Each structure stands twice: as structure tokens, then as C-alpha cells.
Amino acid sequence: MFKSHRVNLLLLLILSSFLFFWMLGGHGLLEPDEGRYSEIPREMMETGDYVTPRLNGVLYFEKPVLHYWLTASAFAVMGKTELASRFWPAALAVVGVLFTYWLGAYLYGKRSGLAAGVILASSLLYFAIAQINLTDMPVSSFITVAMVAFLMARLQNRRWLLLFYSAMALAVLTKGLIGLVLPGAVILCYMIVTRRWSIVKDTLYLPGIILFFAITVPWFWAVCRANPDFFHFFFIHEHFVRYATKVHNRYEPVWFFVPILLVGTIPWTGFIPQALMEAIKGRKGQDESDWAGIYLALWFAVIFAFFSLSSSKLIPYIVPVLPPLAILVGRRAVRIWDEGDLKNTLVGLSLSSVLTVLFGVAFVVYPYVQDRLPSELLVPQLVHKGIILLVGTGLAWWGYLKGSPKKVLICLTITGIIFILSFKTGFSLYDRINSARQLSDIIKPHLREDDVVAQYGDYNQGLPFYLERRNVLVNYLGELEFGAKRETDPSWFIGDREFLELWNGHRQVFLVVPARVWSHLEDKLGKTYIMGKNWRENDLVITNRPIEED
């Protein structure tokens, strides 16, 4: 059954599409990222300007433009919905799974490729980022395509370099220079380790280079021409300053991604050390394919080290390291399956069980020992996840005691798939505690064309998207500081004095204010009308006059 590429690709397409797309639009946009990456494309569609990204009406140059274009295309086809917002990250996650299969199958056989695809699709971190409108999954998928195409160019035909350069160009247009730097760093290290100095000459493929610049240059030229400040902010501030300093307040210790990787690859975590050691110690010969394990290990290690050394760290950054790990673990799993290797099954299962049991118990116990949210809310969200891990681990050990590595691998695969599917319900919780959709539902039925929506001391980035209008921001700049300082209309970013004038003016004002500052602000505003609160009651919606019903 698994001897046909078409069958395997179809199985992975069905599995990954089901995992990533099922219930994809069932919850509100999560703050702040999904609000931001939905609002910028909405404003492009509203203004007709697809060159200069804007957020809440002001210049926003933290990321290039491709992800905004893709999201806008989904809005144009499916409407401005949560499903459309998340469509491209999920779709490109499927692409990453299919290319991971292709490389794994070419190097180690179709069953190893299939195992790699299933392992990647059912890895918690990969699955989670595929569900969220971020740039990290698109850039990871483009990097995966580039890395696969480079090795295929070495193993098969140099024309694969056209895909290599195209994928890097798309990665650059998605998230900047890392789309070029990360593949380049991996290839440089691979060249040094293997001492294959001809890689430089072989990779400098003129048609590919022309294609790279043909894809990237037009937008960068157009945006720099329209916005002289773009070059310094984007290339200097957002790349070198961001990487080397703590300017974005995203500093984490150098080991930050280690626990993220351990948790993000459950239940296969315990097999990663074996898989990496097998790759490093594997057969080295004259053929390029003999060094493929080293290439995959470096693909993982170089990118992991790059982000670990950065002064700016966020969880999704290391998604690009998951495809090579999936291929190596997939190869290891098939070898254990074929050889009935109980010894290595014991090692991998033991290491994985440490995490699955630890987190399984934590999921069951946490709702009863925390005081941040009502336990009756968390129990149905977390306890069943813990039970899945504990039961799945127990069944895997049962398979081991029966002397069957095959049963162990089957149990782990089923556990991984059921475990990540259980997180589908968790998004409904985040919808309640971390989305601007509730606030917009309070305001939108009463909002007229001349009314004002203002936010005080904070910025719920999804609110302009849901209300389809720009918000006045009071005592807040945040990440909008660069654009706000170049705003020609001062009425959109104001302080207390200007806000009091607006509040006491003739227009209806809907104010979103954090509950923590409301007690200090209430006396200043005089007559107010509380319209409602979000579920956590940490944000209130206030208006300055009674609602006029139509």
C-alpha cells in the first residue's frame, strides 16, 4: 500500500488537511498577532495600496509584504473571516509536510518519508503554528522547500536550483533576510563539514539568481521609493538591531528553545537523540547521498543555534527545525519497525515517557491548583489532554512488554494525533480570554459612520479588523511608534487632554479601556455608560452618551 508516491502523498494530504483545517475558523482572532496580520491586509484592500503596509492607518514596516498579499487574496475569495485569515498558514503547513515526505522518501525510502510526514503533521508545535495567522509557518514552509530543493539539486538535477532560489525569495518576501541567511548558513556549514568546496560554484546558478532578484527586488524597490524611511527601519532596525539587542523586550536565555523543542515534539521527543546520533555517525562516502544525514542534522542544528543566540526569541521561531528532525526520526522509526529493535525502542520510549507522564499529570492537576481561571473552565479543557498522554504512554509500554516495537510505534502515532486534535477545543478557550471579537460584538450593532472608536492605554489589534475602521489610540504608541511619528493627522494618537475634548464633544465615542485603569479614569470623564465587558472582565466598553436605537 505504501509503495506508491501518489498513495502516500494523498494520505498525507488528507491527514494534514484534516488536522490543520478542521475547525480552523471556529474561534476569534487571537491577540495580538492574528489581529495585526489580518488588519494590515484588510487596510490594503480598503486603501488599494498593496505596496506600503499600514496598521491602524500608519506605516508598519516590521515584516515584508508577501504574507499580507496572501491573506488579502484569501479575504477576496472567502470574505474577511477567521478561516480566510488562517488559510495560508494552514495550506503552507500542508506543503511543508508534503516536501518533508518527498525528501525523506527519496533518501530513505517511501515508508520513511511517510513516517516523517506523519510525525511532522502530528508534532504539537508544528500543528499549533499551522493554526495561527503568523508569518512563521509560511517562512518555515518556504525554507523547507528551499532546503529540499538544494539537496535534490545535488543529488539529481541542477535545475532544482530554480526552486531553491524561488523558495528563498518567497521566504525573504515573507519575513526578511532570514529567508536567505538561514539556508545559506546551513549550506555553508555543510560545505565546511563535508569539505565539498565545489558547492559554491555549483550553487551559483545564474538562472536561479536572476529568478531570486526578479521575485524580491520589485516590491523592495517600490516600497523604498514610496517610503524613504523603509530601508533603515526594516534592514537595520528590524534585522541587526533586533537580533543583537533587547530593543523589542523579547530577550530569553540561550536555553529558551530547548524546553520548547522537547514539548513541541511530543510524543516523539525521546527518539530525537537517537536519530541525530545515527545521522552524525552514519556512513560517509563519496556520494552526496552518503552525507544526507549530516545535511539534515546541520539543517536542524544551525537554525536552532541561530535563534538560540538571538536576543529576540519567540516560540514559533524554531518551526523550521522540525522537518529535518521529522525525517531523521521517521527513518529511525522505520528501522526499529523492520528490525524489531527492542533495545532502541526502550531508550526512545523511556525518554519520551518522562515528558508525556510529566505533562499528562500536569494537565490533570493544574486546573485544581491554579487561581487564574475558574477550575470548572479549565477541567474540560486540560484534563482530557492529560488522560490522552497517560493512557497513550501506558498502551505504548504495554506494546513494549509484549515485545512488539510495532505496537509501540502505532500507539505513539495514534496518541500524537489524538493529543493534538484535543487542542482544537482549547482554541475556544483562547477565543474567550484572548480575542477582540467579544469587544467588537458589543460595539458593532450600535456603530454608525460618524462614531468614534477609541482605545485607552492599550491596543487590541483585532478590534479595527472586526469593526472595519481605524481606532483612536489614547496614551499608546507601542509598536506603532514608528508610523505614529510620521502620521500627519494628530487626532489618531492623542493624550488625556485631547481625549477629554473628544469625549465631551458632539460625537458618539465608544471607548475600550483596561479594567485596571478604569477606576482612575472614571472620575475624569463625568457621565459614562458601561456597555459591557469581555469575558475575563479585563477590558470594558464605555460610551459617552446613551445609545440611540434605530
Automatic annotation (TrEMBL):
Localization per Swiss-Prot or TrEMBL = Cell membrane
A Pfam family hit:
Arnt_C
Q: Which residues cross the membrane?
A: 7-25, 90-108, 114-132, 139-156, 162-192, 204-222, 254-272, 292-309, 346-369, 381-401, 408-430
Name this protein carries in UniProt: 4-amino-4-deoxy-L-arabinose transferase
User: Which InterPro entries would you find in this protein's record?
Assistant: Arnt_C, LipidA_mod_glycosyltrf_83, RgtA/B/C-like
Annotated ranges, domain Glycosyltransferase RgtA/B/C/D-like: 63-220
Identify the main location: membrane
Keywords assigned by UniProt?
Cell membrane, Glycosyltransferase, Membrane, Transferase, Transmembrane, Transmembrane helix
- Its GO CC terms? plasma membrane
Q: Does the keyword Transmembrane apply?
A: yes
Topology in the lipid bilayer: Multi-pass membrane protein
Keyword Metal-binding attached: no
Q: Which GO BP terms, alphabetically?
A: lipopolysaccharide biosynthetic process; response to iron(III) ion
In its UniProt entry, the species of origin is given as Dethiosulfovibrio salsuginis
The terms under GO molecular function for this entry are: pentosyltransferase activity
Which parts of the sequence belong to the Aminoarabinose transferase C-terminal domain? 441-526
